[in-house]
Each structure stands twice: as structure tokens, then as C-alpha cells.
Amino acid sequence: VRIRVKPVIHTSPKQSLVLQEGDSAELSCHVQAGSPPPKLRWRKLLGPLPSGEEAIEGSLLKLETVSRYDMGKYACEADNGFGNSPVTSLVRVEVEYGPSVTLTKSEDSRTEMKISCIVDSNPPSKVSWLKDGVLINPENMSIV
To answer: What is the pTM of this model?
Structure first.
């Protein structure tokens, strides 16, 4: 007689990890219980792993030189045939990075010109507008 026991796993870090762009890290998954011993695999929710693979087998996931695109939730899955779906533990990876700025403007005009600034950063950047070195009051942005 073989008795199946539902896997119990825990991940390290426990829930979230904050990295700077360019850092490396390891996510690990440990089996605390389960019979037969479960197989472990890592995958990223909503997309492939940074390596391009859908999933990798094993208890360790190495993240080398992370970028903003590696941000997201990573799942360790343990499967030993107990139940219809594997037991899952999630780790949220947050990647902090400096601002990148994209400016666009309408055609030059003596009467009106529209300038927009798109800033991508994590954490979000504070954006200020200056004209001739003087801070523009946000309430008067359309009257410059």
C-alpha cells in the first residue's frame, strides 16, 4: 500500500525580494513534507523565465544580472501526484531602476506647443518642469 501525502514547501525569500537592476539573486524552494518526495520546478507567472524557458526543474532558480523585465511573480511548484495540480509557493521579485525619459513635442509654433514627458522608473520618479531654470507651477502648466 502506498500512501500519498500532499507536498508542503517553503520558499526563500519568503514572499518578496527587492533588487537593483544589474543585481543577481537566488530563489530557493525546500520540501518540508510529501510522499512520495515531490518534484520541484520554477516558473514565472505571466511570461517566460529570464533564461527564456517556460520552467526549470529543481529547487534553485538563479537570476543573473536582473533587468526591469525580470520583475514579477515566480512560482515554485511541487508535484508528487497528490491532487490535480501542484502545490505552489510564490515569490515576488521587485527590480528598482533609475529613470529613462522620453520627450515628445508638437511642431514649433508661436502660439501653442505641446510637450510631453514620459518617465519610466521604479520606484516612480517625481517629475518637475522648468522654464529658463525656473520651476513651473503644475497648476499653470498650460500657460507658459
So the answer is: 0.83
